[in-house]
Amino acid sequence: MWSILSGRSRLLAAAAAVLLLAAAVVLAVVLTAVPPSAVPTPPPPPSSSLPTTAGPTESPTAGPLPSGAPAPTPSGTVPAGPAPLPTIPATEPAPEPPLPEPPAPFPAALAGRDLEVIPGAGPVVALTFDAGANSAGLPSILQTLAATGVRGTFFLTGNWAGANPQGVAAIVAGGHRVGNHSMTHPGFTGLADAAIGDQLVRAQQAIQAGGGDPRPLFRFPFGDRDARTIATVNAYGYLPVRWAVDTLGWKGSSGGITAQIVADRALARLQPGEIVLMHIGSNPDDGTTLDADALPGMIERMRQAGYGFTTLGALLG
Question: Measured in Å, how far apart are the chain's first and last C-alpha atoms?
Answer without folding.
Answer: 164
